[in-house]
Amino acid sequence: MRIFRMFVLPLTLLLCSGAALAADGLIVLESNHSVAATADKLEAVLSANGMKIMNRIDHAAGAKSADMKLRPTVLVIFGNPKVGTPLMQCAQSVAVDLPQKALIWEDESGQVWLGYNDPEYLKTRHAIEGCDPVLAKVSGALAKFAKAATH
Question: Given 3-state DSSP classes, what are the helix, strand and coil percentages for the chain, each rounded to the nearest 5?
Fold first, then answer.
């Protein structure tokens, strides 16, 4: 698995730039903007669609405070109880993965990426049953938000 993460996944991301990829439960999109601009665009589209922004964590700033270096890396935490609660009613353990998160980072070549949890992965991870319409709605919304933030 380590070889996969070190070589195959980065090669796949390089070859499929611009496409949405899913690996180990993470959907990843290439961004046309900086990390900060992508995070700003994401927050704007989330707010415009009734999502509450719960936090924005600048991991690079945290690293700097510990006298360490990290390329720009931002985590945006967001959600809406009207969406999350029905998922938790189907499988309460999904609460460990809620609220939703989007990670935006700059790789070693300067390319910016946005990644978020694949709802289908959450379905499998938490053995969610009877919530396919809710999961489909979440999948569509997350894809829409990510596309708006990265283009």
Answer: 50, 25, 25
